[in-house]
Design a protein that fits this description.
Length: 313
């Protein structure tokens, strides 16, 4: 048992978790790039099938007979276009240079080190490799190490490391596409509730359940009120689910810190983009990265932040 404890301690130590985080960060780069494409392909396939469904078209549109063949042909053409696309998954095909299609060898795909060795350029065509890739890897490695340092060699470190990976992926997907996929937000909710139920994190199951409920309803209420007053969508459902996931992981007590921090940073960045960069007001600014950042801050500094908002606590 002593040997097992030593082994676990080594595996969950900050240096080991930093290395694991770099490896996971490399995979997250694939997720960030490909998951939106996979989802959008699926949505387009559903649309193609729907356009060819005569019963549905008549039910929804009341379409005249002359319109139905046009819709069916459009759906069939879209389905053919999708069928001709190359296969895509999170595991296949292997990573390639987006400029020349050069398939990366194993030694060109070592997290962080390969980018540094190649000096940020493709070994085949010399095209620049985005700084995003090593940044995601380094960020994930740093977060994994910080979780291990903060929570020690126990189940909480495993739970929160998984949460960090989900948050990093969700933040960058939202930043690129304004999408927060259920594949990233719903596991966060389930992870928090399961970990609280099993006693793996310092949050009771009741606090985790209330955190998920209040997290979802708080942003849903704000978005609903905004839509009633302005007649436009101010926030998407993915944001509700993301905050629900952080409420499940951190407890309802942390929600104030998460929302205040993310709103303050989001407002500051939004004002900067509008004033200094000419960002149009009608173009949405993704809120997921700020929610994720607020959640990370609340995880590491939750007690201190709570005392700022609630001095008596």
């Amino acid at each position: 048992m002593a040997d097992l404890a030593v082994s676990v301690g080594l595996l969950l130590s900050p240096p080991a978790m930093a290395i694991l985080g770099l490896l996971i960060g490399s995979f997250l780069n694939v997720v960030i790039h490909r998951l939106p494409q996979l989802l959008e392909r699926g949505w387009l396939a559903d649309a193609a099938s729907y356009l060819q469904d005569e019963v549905a078209m008549r039910r929804v549109l009341g379409a005249a007979p002359l319109q139905l063949p046009v819709l069916a042909r459009t759906g069939a053409a879209l389905a053919d276009d999708l069928a001709r696309l190359p296969q895509l998954g999170l595991a296949m095909p292997r990573s390639r240079c987006p400029s020349c299609g050069h398939g990366l060898a194993w030694h060109e795909n070592i997290p962080l080190l390969s980018w540094l060795r190649l000096r940020g350029k493709c070994s085949s065509c010399g095209a620049p490799i985005s700084l995003r890739y090593p940044l995601v890897e380094a960020l994930t490695g740093a977060l994994f190490a910080a979780v291990a340092w903060r929570f020690g060699a126990g189940a909480a470190t495993v739970v929160y490391a998984i949460a960090m990976a989900l948050l990093v992926a969700a933040a960058f997907v939202d930043l690129d596409t304004t999408l927060l996929p259920d594949q990233l937000t719903l596991p966060l909710i389930g992870l928090g509730l399961l970990a609280a139920w099993l006693g793996w994190i310092p949050v009771s199951l009741a606090d985790a359940a209330l955190g998920a409920l209040f997290g979802y309803l708080s942003l849903w209420s704000i978005a609903t009120l905004y839509k009633l007053l302005r007649g436009a969508e101010g926030m998407a459902e993915g944001d509700f689910k993301l905050l629900a996931g952080m409420g499940a992981l951190l407890g309802w007590q942390a929600l104030t810190s998460v929302v205040l921090l993310s709103s303050a940073v989001g407002a500051a960045v939004g004002i900067y983009l509008i004033v200094a960069r000419g960002h149009r007001r009608e173009v949405p600014i993704p809120f997921g990265p700020y929610l994720a950042g607020g959640g990370v801050a609340a995880l590491f500094f939750g007690a201190q932040l709570s005392r700022l908002w609630l001095p008596g606590q």
